[in-house]
Design a protein that fits this description.
CATH superfamily of the largest domain: Histidine kinase-like ATPase, C-terminal domain
Number of strands: 23
Number of helices: 19
Oligomer: single chain
Distance between the termini: 75 Å
Structural class: alpha+beta
Number of domains: 4
Largest sheet: 8 strands, mixed
Radius of gyration: 31 Å
CATH topology of the largest domain: Heat Shock Protein 90
Bound molecules: adenosine-5'-diphosphate, magnesium ion
CATH architecture of the largest domain: 2-Layer Sandwich
Strand order of the largest sheet: 5-4-3-6-2-1-7-8
């Protein structure tokens, strides 16, 4: 009479367990998609109604289940994926606790049809609140179809906690995206209320990202690849200029499973360091492959967190690989890299050939010439009526108030800005000290780091010269003879053909003496020695430390060489031209060392600085 402890009935135990595993329709979607992947399916269809609240159906062409397994799969702790506790540590598959189906069946009306390849008939099971309603043979294709109806029908409290259809759909799309990304060799489709939301065919990882996120993503991706004894890493990072204002596009997979890991996220983000604004987040789609015995998978009930046994090494490898990928594609400050030689990525293993940047630049621009010799646009906007003034002001307002935050990058608005600057009065360009240009608009300010801008312009100009195999040379009336060190002479002679593309025409005079017969048209005579010596020094430095292409190295080194003696007071016309040329660059936001070159401030931003 005094014994009061009772075992909970299975249905209640399952309902409690369900609370942990299934929080919302998206959780059921995730579990079922992962089961289908585990079943070896090559094609998986997801169908939902009312954001999964009334129906979630998943149809796969995987191995299917026998009659007995079909029934057993709904029992708690029923799993084909684990035989002994040890397996937990060597597990490659997704689900492994045998809880998902049991949980779902406890809180929904579930109908399953499944057939093994070797059988002619399949099994049809209906189960409701953990109680089996019927089980009979049926005709059905090989594979498994599971329909989950009226989720939480018997747990009204949970049902009322569900968010709007829009929010629940977003969660489902996110789970779908994660599983689809983790398995590019599987075809997936997703229909909601009979509307097709996704139809992604099998392909490689890059194609999968483009299909899911949009075709324009293809050119935003920078490949990352690293093989070490501890971990292998591959995938893509988004170029810094496409960083997001939220964490929406950060995908990390370990052994083909999506995981969240703040520590590794930090490794990736910190590799982007000065390349993106502080309030934005880099996009990434990275996959780690690691010996399962090196991770502890089961520390989080919904299994999106894992623990690496050697997490410090994994951190260092991931960070170095991302940095190198950025440097390789000359997005990052290659010259400012901490040297991280420990992890040498064989570059020839990079999956894709980097696209050459397409550069729009004014080839006649000479940042060093006096303003008079410049081809400065003479077109000026002189508003002559109220409407025009109104439009003019409105455009500026738009530019600066798109988002009232400081440090905004110049992105979609490059051409607007370019046009505005062309039309701006000269007196709006002010030089502060030797380095800073300030352009004042009706509704904000633009600040530009002048030398960094010039360097960027020169660099892209030189790269462009290689592409077009043409950079005009000005023949020297009195070609200087430069007596240099033996190694400098040798190197310059080795580079002679490439230097010619950049406008340098040098000849061997013997005895470590070079004759500079021609110099680039935009260079002032008289500095040949300094420019060439800096070039050689930079070139060697880059070559030994970074794996830049020969052309990129030369373009960078020459830009550096030309920048010596460049600090001076500029005329307003010249400042305008620098700003215009910068805005025509492929990458106007960052210097070749990865520092910010240009920032815009709205009047609100400025007020914040004052107050
Ligand atoms: P777990 O996936 O952790 O094993 P589940 O409750 O998700 O637990 O599934 C229980 C078992 O049912 C699985 O181990 C598997 O054998 C079987 N199963 C579930 N879904 C499918 C499917 N789509 N195709 C084949 N077998 C499946
Ligand atoms: Mg499972």
């Amino acid at each position: 009479m005094f014994d009061i402890i009772q075992l909970l009935p299975d249905s209640v135990a399952n309902q409690i367990a369900a609370g942990e595993v299934i929080q919302r329709p998206a959780s059921a979607v995730k579990e079922m998609l992962e089961n289908a992947v585990d079943a070896g399916a090559s094609k998986i269809q997801l169908i939902t109604k009312d954001s999964g609240k009334t129906l979630i159906q998943i149809i796969d062409n995987g191995i299917g289940m026998s009659e007995t397994d079909a029934r057993l799969s709904f029992e708690r702790h029923a799993t084909s994926k684990i035989r002994k506790a040890d397996d937990l540590f060597t597990l490659h598959t997704m689900g492994f606790r045998g809880e998902a189906l049991a949980s779902i069946a406890a809180i929904a009306q579930v109908e399953m049809k499944t057939r093994l390849l070797k059988n002619d008939v399949g099994t049809h099971i209906q189960i409701e609140g953990s109680v089996c309603q019927s089980q009979e043979p049926c005709a059905t294709p090989v594979g498994t179809s599971i329909a989950i109806k009226n989720l939480f029908y018997n747990v009204p409290a949970r049902r009322s906690f569900l968010k709007s259809n829009q929010v629940e759909t977003r969660h489902i799309v996110e789970e779908f995206t994660r599983v689809a990304l983790a398995n590019p060799s599987i075809s997936f489709s997703f229909h909601q209320n009979e509307l097709q939301l996704f139809d992604v065919r099998e392909g490689n990882f890059r194609q999968r990202i483009s299909t899911l996120f949009g075709n324009n993503y293809n050119e935003r991706l920078v490949p990352v690849e690293e093989e070490t004894t501890i971990v292998n890493l591959d995938g893509f990072i988004g170029k810094p200029e496409f960083a997001k204002k939220n964490r929406g596009e950060q995908y990390l997979f370990v052994n083909n499973r999506f995981i969240k890991d703040n520590y590794l996220n930090h490794a990736i983000t910190s590799a982007f360091e000065s390349l993106i604004a502080r309030d934005s987040y880099p996009s990434y789609w990275l996959r780690l492959t690691i010996d399962p015995s090196q991770i502890d998978v089961n520390i989080h009930p919904t299994k999106t967190e894992i623990k690496f046994i050697d997490d410090k090494s994994v951190y260092a490898i991931v960070r170095a690989a991302v940095k190198r990928a950025l440097g390789r594609f000359s997005i990052a400050p290659s010259l400012d890299f901490d040297q991280e030689r420990a992890f040498d990525i064989p570059l020839d293993k990079m999956g894709t050939i980097p696209l050459q940047p397409s550069i729009r630049i004014n080839p006649n621009y000479n940042p060093f010439a006096n303003a008079d010799s410049n081809t400065v646009s003479t077109k000026r906007f002189v508003p002559d009526n109220a409407t025009q003034v109104g439009q003019w002001t409105k455009l500026q307002d738009q530019l600066f108030n798109k988002e009232a935050t400081a440090n905004l990058e110049i992105k979609d608005d490059v051409s607007t800005l370019h046009q505005l600057i062309e039309d701006l009065h000269d007196d709006r360009f002010i030089q502060i000290g030797l380095r800073v240009m300030c352009v004042s608009f009706h509704s904000g300010l633009l600040l530009v780091d002048i030398p960094a801008a010039q360097e960027r312009i020169l660099f892209e100009h030189h790269l462009h010269a290689f592409e077009n195999k043409s950079s005009p040379t000005q023949q020297q009336l009195f070609p200087p003879h430069l007596n240099l060190s033996e190694s400098d002479t040798q190197l310059l002679l080795e580079l002679r053909d490439d230097l010619l593309h950049l406008g340098f025409d040098i000849a061997d005079f013997g005895n470590n003496t070079l004759v500079v017969q021609g110099i680039p048209t935009n260079m002032e005579p008289g500095n040949e020695r300094e420019v060439l010596e800096t070039l050689v020094e930079q070139y060697r430095n880059n070559r030994d430390r970074f794996k830049l292409s020969n052309h990129e190295n030369l373009a960078r080194s020459l830009a550096k060489g030309e920048m010596i003696k460049s600090n001076r007071q500029f005329q307003q016309k010249e400042l305008r031209q620098i700003a215009l040329n910068l805005l025509q660059c492929e990458q106007p936001n960052y210097s070749i060392n990865g520092k910010k070159i240009i920032r815009k401030f709205s009047s609100d931003d400025l007020l914040n600085l004052i107050n």
